[in-house]
Design goal:
The chain is mainly alpha-helical. The protein has helices at about 10-15, 20-35, 40-45, 60-85, 90-100, 115-140, 150-190, 200-215, 220-225, 235-240, 240-255, 260-290, and strands at about 105, 195.
Length: about 290
């Protein structure tokens, strides 16, 4: 009978493969470091493969591009303001409409008050009309530094922000401003005659419209925080009591009037927008889990 001789392990077989381990170690460390980074760090320092455009520019080239885009934006806004100033009287009549039918008369209490008021109205209106150009220049400036996922998310955020801003202005003109002014007229009826300064009236109306448009950006801020994974939808929904108090406080600060009715008219949609933004963040998280 032949006996099987045991196979002896050679030195080459017993020697561990340090070369493969040394090659895999940096990759493992890199993956661990990427997982350990926070959402803010990933946003500020994205991976090179996430950037689709390999564009390198010096600091002076960045400043030169920024200067050109600022000049284009300023020119667009200036042209819009000049065009609105040519129709300033029509804009004044349009903004006087919420209380014009209730017998309110507007007075010019100082020389040049109406002239400076028309210029103020033209400035606000021209800025609103020139905002799309300014927004386009801002997007074109920051676009090369955005990752692929951020570019997919950019268009809905910009479109939603613009729509919400103009919806806020429309809501202020159609609902909030007439309600506040009607309250003041009704409260003074039978006691004093409503003779309002044209400058103070437009300061009230323009500030109210602008603050309402800005306050309608709440869902956009929530979606950005949710996309960066800084705040989850559960945290947003869990803090609804504090948000309700904050909405009332914000309405008291943003509205130029002191009556509680006008403040509630603004606080109610603010709270509704917040809850809608929390719902949108939950949908985004659900889609992220399915992916």
């Amino acid at each position: 009978m032949h006996k099987c001789r045991p196979v002896q392990a050679t030195a080459q077989d017993e020697k561990p493969n340090y070369e493969d381990w040394n090659q895999a170690k940096p990759k493992a460390l890199k993956a661990t470091n990427q997982d350990d980074r926070s959402a803010i760090q990933k946003f500020l320092y994205p991976d090179p493969e996430e950037l689709p455009d390999d564009v390198e520019m010096t600091i002076w080239e960045h400043l030169e591009e920024l200067r050109e885009r600022v000049m284009v934006s300023a020119a667009a806004v200036s042209v819009a303001i000049l065009g609105c100033f040519c129709f300033s009287k029509d804009l004044v009549v349009f903004l006087e409409d919420p209380v014009a039918q209730q017998g309110v008369r507007f007075l010019q209490l100082s020389p040049g008050e109406y002239f400076f008021t028309t210029f103020k109205v033209a400035g606000y209106t021209g800025l609103l009309l020139g905002t799309p150009v300014v927004l386009y220049e801002v997007i074109e400036y920051v676009l090369p530094g955005l990752t692929k996922s951020e570019r997919k998310f950019l268009a809905p955020v910009v479109l939603g922000s613009s729509v919400l801003f103009y919806l806020g202005i429309l809501f202020s003109y159609q609902v909030l401003t007439p309600a506040a002014l009607n309250f003041f007229v009704s409260y003074a009826e039978g006691a004093v005659e409503s003779l309002w300064s044209i400058d103070q009236y437009f300061e009230f109306v323009l500030v109210l419209m602008l603050s309402t448009g800005l306050s309608f950006q709440v869902p956009v801020v929530q979606i950005l925080l949710g996309q960066l994974r800084i705040v989850s939808s559960e945290q947003m929904l869990g803090a609804w009591r504090y948000v309700l108090v904050g909405a009332v406080a914000a309405a008291a600060v943003l509205t130029p009037s002191t009556d509680p009715f006008t403040q509630m008219l603004l606080a109610t949609p603010l709270f509704g927008l917040y809850m809608g933004g929390a719902g949108a963040v939950r949908l985004i998280e659900g889609g992220r889990k399915l992916a």
